[in-house]
Model the fold of this input.
Amino acid sequence: MKKPIQHKANKLSTLKGFTLVELMVAMGIAIVIMSMLVGITNVAMGAWQRSRAEVRASRQAKAMLDVMARDFESIVLRSGNINEWLYCKTETDLPGPDRDKSTNAAELMFFTSATDRYQGALGTSKDLGGDVCAVSYKLAFQDPLDASESPTSTFVFYRQLVDPKPTFDSLLAKPDLKQAFNAEGGNNRFETATSNSGSTDSQYEFVCENVYQYSITFRVDVSDPMSVGSTVKPVRVTLGDAGTANEFRIYGDRLDTDGTPASGAMSVSNEQLKSGKVTGCEISITVLSDTGINQLKTRTFIDEKAKAKFLQEHSYEFTKSVDLPGL
Done:
């Protein structure tokens, strides 16, 4: 009698797969892990972008502060005359988009012994002699490439250096430095091109961009009216809306300002301040990040508090003090 044939069971039928519950649990775990990775990546990217913005702002600030500090350290002042040697006045028409203009900017002119005179070609045929240059600083809102206002406009800081020969011919020994500067073509025409014509508007130099505001604080030694003898104390005079003055001028025989010492300083009158001696200055600037600049041009703030919060999140503050040679 033949035995019945026994078929081997299909091994595949004995293998077990994942149940629906197991698949859902695995997918949930994967989603949690991916969410954590995305969150960590976003945090890392945000930190990197903030660090990059701060480094760029620091470079912009360093470029501006170093250039201004060098010019101030070599400032040329002469006593015993009625000529004007430094002119600084807060801008009445502040640069910036119509909705959000700069909070503070000053037009600054003075004389200095600049080492980059004649475009740095000292001792060559371009060097026409002399070492006293006139220099002017101004903050503008425009395209840094073509000097016009466009969708790519930003806050641009310019330095205008007038070489010694045209300085001697047209600007030195003038009782009104601003008027003399304007008469010779320096009337706020800040361009990117450089000319070798020898006129007072011969050199226009881009210094940095994204400078939202800057202010100048002058340190003045004034005799203390409340003390016995000739005690001298330093007071601070800051130009700008948040400061104590809108104008500050240094002449060969006096100071001239419409301001008073900053709060907390000793009480002195405007006349006593004018008889003081300038010993130094402090340059303070606010640099916006690229993101801050782009948002500032399109964003509408509901009030000043919201704007202040925005500036705090997207800007960086820098200051530098410089000692000045006295008259």
